From TrEMBL, chain A:
<dbReference type="GO" id="GO:0005524">
    <property type="term" value="F:ATP binding"/>
</dbReference>
<dbReference type="InterPro" id="IPR017871">
    <property type="entry name" value="ABC_transporter-like_CS"/>
</dbReference>
<dbReference type="Pfam" id="PF08352">
    <property type="entry name" value="oligo_HPY"/>
</dbReference>
<comment type="similarity">
    <text>Belongs to the ABC transporter superfamily.</text>
</comment>
<dbReference type="GO" id="GO:0016887">
    <property type="term" value="F:ATP hydrolysis activity"/>
</dbReference>
<keyword id="KW-1003">Cell membrane</keyword>
<dbReference type="GO" id="GO:0005886">
    <property type="term" value="C:plasma membrane"/>
</dbReference>
From TrEMBL, chain B:
<comment type="similarity">
    <text>Belongs to the ABC transporter superfamily.</text>
</comment>
<dbReference type="InterPro" id="IPR027417">
    <property type="entry name" value="P-loop_NTPase"/>
</dbReference>
<dbReference type="InterPro" id="IPR050319">
    <property type="entry name" value="ABC_transp_ATP-bind"/>
</dbReference>
<dbReference type="Pfam" id="PF08352">
    <property type="entry name" value="oligo_HPY"/>
</dbReference>
<dbReference type="InterPro" id="IPR013563">
    <property type="entry name" value="Oligopep_ABC_C"/>
</dbReference>
<dbReference type="GO" id="GO:0055085">
    <property type="term" value="P:transmembrane transport"/>
</dbReference>
<keyword id="KW-0813">Transport</keyword>
TrEMBL record, chain C:
<dbReference type="InterPro" id="IPR050366">
    <property type="entry name" value="BP-dependent_transpt_permease"/>
</dbReference>
<dbReference type="InterPro" id="IPR025966">
    <property type="entry name" value="OppC_N"/>
</dbReference>
<keyword id="KW-0472">Membrane</keyword>
<feature type="domain" description="ABC transmembrane type-1">
    <location>
        <begin position="103"/>
        <end position="292"/>
    </location>
</feature>
<dbReference type="Pfam" id="PF12911">
    <property type="entry name" value="OppC_N"/>
</dbReference>
<feature type="transmembrane region" description="Helical">
    <location>
        <begin position="272"/>
        <end position="291"/>
    </location>
</feature>
<keyword id="KW-1133">Transmembrane helix</keyword>
Length: 324, 338, 308
């Protein structure tokens, strides 16, 4: 499998009245072609911001990517300016995103077919007829009944699940190499969510597209992802294949997160406290205030770098790394 | 349904339950036009029956629009049920007037999904939590009142020295604790928890679930109606679980039984739609993916409301509606095919 | 998560709490309010202007160089100079003194009309907000009709029917501006009623009166204050308009509107006679609008916490 995306040292900051918030802090990871990677973490941990940073979609001001590189198909995405032609040619074409709320991502005043054709004429220079054909074909592939007719609907005429299917169809239109799904199914009902996840899983498999699933739902990651990145307070604190992480969660946060999911007949052991503020964080481990396994040494050492311990498994816990 | 028929039903109900709901119907009129004429009814609840024993937690699961929130609001009489019997500690409160209801209100409480809109932004947290005390005249002197509120703060894992702060100074998880503290203030025998953890992060969800359980273990007569779309959480906290679809209960049994012996095809699909956070278990599972959207209660399908999406549907499913029946072992299910 | 877990030092529960403290630093409400209010420079300017006008009105007798009603027929239409900083009018009255005293009338009319229209509008708005959907839509449709009547025409009608003077002006303007409050309050009540804390209060057994006073009114007060501030400007404008047309506060009273009208005849020779009171009106209206804007920013509970 070829390497598709290499992110190195990505850091994003937001300026607020209270100080500078480092929402993404020195994040490095990579994604192979056709791979499904889960990015999990709680709200405010920087998982969405890290993805938006790649596409340079962070509102600026107050946000700014302050460091890092993101090499995608041989070019550094962060080298271009926000509105450069090169970046526009990649967004929606080579890399597409699916967001949680389809109603805000779709233009309410345009029919589905027109919105889809627009993408195709912009990126692939198709003429009107070809674009329409391709759009209805894609709508059929995402399981929209009677796509020829539905294509002329406006977004508000579709149900939430159908709208999100349209979003998937639009994301797949230009056969991208990478799709970033940011909590794409969170707002949907359980059975509809399952339909959509299955659909996305099938499609990315069929077209050999890599998929990044940004989610807080560990179940989704366990079911569909090959690898997982766990984020906490702007850092990736553990990475590995799904099997590695579930079999042996190394970072105390990962371990805590896994035991936060209710299981029948087992006592829950929630992580205590709440996620830290990201303003003026000390250099120590960000999980330190909530960690059940901290020692006196943790208070003195700076936070560990993500370090591989074998296989594809890496963690950023000083204590765990010492043991190895 | 006449008064006599209701009396018969009331007699059939086991004595000593905290809540008994018998054939509850809740229709919302659809109003149109300048004069707000009624053009149709939305049958949000259609013949819902269940009971909750003291100290028991009944889970209520289903997708949006299935009526689970309406059940909670009917029990608290925030809505006046269209028909049916609603016994709270043995008294029918379905038709009681608002002023007579007040004496029952202290004994029941509600915890909401949205930790933001459920707390008045212009009140400090002490007055939010103490509101039931003031309403029911349980407050006493200022000092007693603050002591009692401080006690409630401690019970729910909040720090009493934060009492004078305003809701916006708390995080989502802490706001939900405030909501629970307020619910406990009147020493209720019944708390309706309407999606209390859905808006929270995973680690906060677990904290709140544990808090609810802990409170119940301290007061063995405290019952919960735990409403959620999260089957894992519902099974974790509830002794019995009711699955709802389009205004009706389609399956009701103990948590363990529902998990190991799922009978209704909808419950099975719901269970399978819930991804388990365990890759090994995921590999073994067969997945049932339902087709189609959740229908609206404004125009429900004929017969069994689930039949258009049901993988097992027979011809008869479109014609007659299956009643909820006991299949043994306290397991109720409403399906022609079981 | 099995036997391989290495047991380390376990930390007692209460220690977790201490480390959280940093995140929840309480903010002084008043400090926050002041900071949010003065965040924009233009609001500071508006606020200073309002204070200046208030002081002027309060101390008019002390700071005005002349009696505003004293005629000096030897000094008719005098040019601005050392004895009369802004000159005199056609009857020889000192223009500056008249403008200073005019601030009293402007503020009195503004305050009274706002109180009249706000109290009528708020009561009806609350009734509409708490009535069932049928009565609500009836009240609101009537309100729509009232709002669609051109307010100047209505003011002229009422003002000409009543005696001129402050009372007449206040009634005329107050009666045309109150429907705007109905709409505001009704909208606010309906949106506050949507909040879960209202259902929570009901489920606890709170009486309707308690819910209205403790929860709804409290949450309606801020937008009401903002509206009243901005309406101050509008009513002062309306009063000036009526006085200019000769239906409001009539000479010899030192009302800015009628001063504009009197000076109008001498626009070519003594432009200050109508420009100076006109500027006074403009500045005061602007100042109230800016203060209203600042209050809106400072009172919005959604912005709380965002501006720590």
């Amino acid at each position: 499998m070829g390497r598709l995306l290499t992110v190195n040292g990505l850091s994003t900051e937001f300026r607020t009245e209270r100080g500078v918030v480092r929402a993404v802090n020195n994040v490095s990871y990579n994604i192979d072609e056709g791979e499904i990677v889960g990015l999990v973490g709680e709200s405010g941990c920087g998982k969405s911001v890290s993805q938006l940073s790649l596409m340079q979609l962070i509102p600026n001001p107050p946000g700014r990517v302050v460091a890092g590189s993101a090499e995608f198909e041989g070019v550094d995405l962060l080298k271009y300016t926000r509105r450069s032609r090169e970046l526009c040619a990649i967004r929606g074409n080579r890399i597409s995103m699916i967001f949680q709320e389809p109603m805000t991502s779709l233009n309410p005043a345009m029919t589905i077919a027109r919105q889809m054709s627009e993408v195709l004429t912009l990126h692939l220079n198709l003429d009107k007829k070809e674009a329409r054909e391709r759009s209805t074909d894609m709508l059929a592939q995402v399981g929209i009944p009677d796509p020829g007719k539905r294509a002329d609907d406006y977004p508000h005429q579709l149900s939430g699940g159908m709208r999100q299917r349209v979003m998937v169809a639009m994301a797949m239109l230009c056969s991208p190499k990478l799709i970033i799904a940011d909590e794409a199914t969170t707002a949907l009902d359980a059975t509809i969510q399952a339909q959509l996840l299955e659909l996305m899983y099938d499609l990315v498999g069929r077209y050999h597209t890599a998929l990044v699933m940004v989610t807080h739902n560990l179940g989704i990651v366990a079911r569909y992802a090959d690898r997982v990145n766990v984020m906490y307070a702007g850092r990736i604190i553990e990475t590995g294949t799904v099997k590695e992480i579930w079999a042996d969660p190394l970072h105390p946060y990962t371990e805590g997160l896994l035991s936060c999911v209710p299981k029948l007949g087992e006592k829950l052991e929630p992580i205590k406290g709440m996620p830290p503020s990201l303003i003026n964080r000390p250099a120590t481990c960000p999980f330190l205030p909530r960690c059940r396994f901290r020692t006196a040494a943790c208070f003195k050492e700076p936070a560990a770098e993500l370090t591989y311990v074998g296989g594809q498994h890496a963690t950023a816990c000083n204590r765990r790394l010492e043991e190895r | 349904m006449g008064g006599r028929a209701e009396a018969v039903i009331t007699e059939k109900v086991e004595k000593g339950n905290t809540v008994d709901v018998v054939n509850l119907k809740m229709y919302f009129p659809v109003l149109r036009g300048l004069l707000k004429r009624k053009v149709a009814d939305v049958k949000a609840l259609d013949d819902v029956s269940f009971s909750i024993k003291p100290g028991e937690t009944l889970g209520l699961v289903g997708e949006s629009g299935c009526g689970k929130t309406t059940v909670g609001r009917c029990i608290l009489r925030l809505y006046k049920p269209t028909k049916g019997v609603l016994l709270f500690e043995g008294t029918d409160i379905s038709k009681v007037s608002e002023s007579d209801l007040r004496q029952f209100r202290r004994r029941m409480a509600l915890v909401f999904q949205d930790p933001y809109s459920s707390l008045d932004p212009r009140m400090n947290s002490c007055d939010i939590v103490g509101e039931p005390l003031k309403i029911h005249g349980l407050a006493g002197s200022r000092g007693e009142y603050r002591d009692r509120v401080a006690e409630l703060f401690t019970m729910t894992g909040l720090r009493p020295d934060m009492m004078d702060r305003f809701p916006h100074e708390y995080s989502g998880g802490q706001r939900q604790r405030l909501s629970i503290a307020r619910a406990l203030a009147g020493a209720p025998s019944m708390i309706v928890c309407d999606e209390p953890i859905s808006a929270l992060d995973v680690s906060m969800q677990a904290q709140i679930l544990n808090l609810l359980q802990e409170l119940q273990s301290k007061n063995d007569r405290l019952s919960y109606l735990f409403i959620s779309h999260d089957l894992l959480a519902v099974q974790y906290i509830s002794q019995r679980v009711a699955v709802m679809y389009l205004g009706r209960i389609v399956e009701l049994s103990t948590s363990q039984e529902l998990y190991s012996n799922t009978l209704h095809p909808y419950s099975r699909a719901l269970l399978s739609a819930q991804p388990l956070p365990d890759p090994a278990a995921e590999e073994r599972r067969s997945r049932i993916i339902l087709t189609g959207d959740v229908p609206t209660p404004l125009n429900p399908p004929s017969g069994c409301a689930f039949h258009p999406r049901c993988p097992m549907a027979k011809k008869s499913c479109a014609e007659s509606r299956p009643e909820l029946r006991d299949v043994g072992g306290d397991h109720l299910v409403a399906c022609h095919c079981v | 998560m099995d036997g391989t877990k290495i047991v380390r030092e376990q930390i007692p529960d209460d220690e977790f709490e201490v480390l959280e403290e940093e995140q929840l630093s309480g903010v002084n409400e008043l400090k926050r309010f002041v900071r949010a209010f003065f965040r924009r420079k233009i609001v500071v300017v508006g606020f200073i202007l309002v204070v200046v006008v208030l002081l002027t009105a309060a101390l008019a007798d002390v700071i005005a160089p002349y009696d505003p009603y004293e005629q000096d027929l030897y000094q008719v239409l005098a040019a601005p100079g050392p004895s009369h900083p802004l000159g005199t009018d056609a009857l020889g009255r000192d223009l500056l003194s008249r403008i200073i005293h005019g601030s009293r009338i402007a503020l009195a009319v503004g305050v009274c009309t706002v109180l009249v229209s706000a109290s009528i509008g708020t009561v009806i708005g609350l009734i509409a907000g708490f009535s069932d959907s049928r009565l609500n839509s009836l009240i609101m449709r009537i309100t729509d009709i009232l709002i669609s009547v051109p307010s100047l025409v209505l003011q002229l009608l009422i003002a000409s029917a009543l005696n001129s003077g402050v009372t007449g002006v206040v009634i005329a303007i107050g009666l045309t501006l109150f429907p705007a409050y109905i709409r505001l309050i009704n909208g606010q009540v309906l949106s506050v009623k949507q909040n879960d804390y209202i259902s929570a209060s009901r489920s606890m057994g709170a009486k309707k009166s308690r819910i209205i006073v403790r929860h709804v009114v409290r949450n309606v007060v801020s937008p009401l204050i903002v509206m009243m501030t901005i309406m101050m400007g509008m009513s002062i404008m309306a009063e000036a308009g009526l006085s200019f047309l000769g239906l409001g506060i009539l000479p010899p009273a030192a009302a800015w509107g009628s001063m504009c009208r009197d000076g109008y005849q001498y626009l070519m020779t003594r432009p200050l006679l109508s420009i100076a009171p006109g500027l006074a009106i403009m500045i005061l209206v602007f100042a109230f609008n800016m203060v209203g804007d600042g209050l809106r920013d400072a009172l919005d509970p959604k912005l709380r916490g965002a501006l720590k």
